[in-house]
Amino acid sequence: MTYVDGFMVAVKTANREAYERHARASVAMFKDHGALTLVEGWGDNVPDGTLTSMPMAVKKEPDESVVFSWITWPDKATRDAGWKAMEDDPRMKEMGDMPFDGKRMIFGGFEAIVEE
Fold it and tell me: Which of 17, 40, 87, 105 has its CA 20 to 30 A from that of 64?
């Protein structure tokens, strides 16, 4: 079964193109270090909640959009080695500042239990 890294961030809606450039620039790097796929989803139907919600989770401001992303890896060992290798990859440093507030990023690693 694959291993999945999931991410959710709030991005200034006006910075969508900058975010897309940042995401596209990272695809080759992730794949070079073992990732199978990288998916970036720009929220277009992400309702506010009253108790919990994606916008609440990332403390979305009115001028921001929620972005939900995931990276699939063949297994956890490849993922761990890939992230470690990226720490020293010069492309990581060349990417510059992230086009979002990284302090509000939610992320985690997940072992796939159903994959069809």
Answer: 87
Q: φ and ψ at 51, to 5 degrees? A: -110, -50
Q: What is the pTM of this model?
A: 0.90
What digits encode the pLDDT tens for the residues 34-48? Answer: 999 999 999 999 999
Q: What whole-number distance in Å separates Cα of residue 61 and Cα of residue 13?
A: 10
Q: Which residues fall within 8 angstroms of residue 95, CB to CB, at 6 or more apart?
A: 22, 25, 26
Interior/surface letters 79-99, b for 16+ CB within 10 angstroms, e for the rest: beebbeebeeeeeeeeeeeeb
48-57 long-range contacts, CB within 8 A, separation 24+: 54/8, 55/10, 57/8, 57/106
Question: Cα(93)–Cα(78) distance, rounded to whole angstroms?
Answer: 21
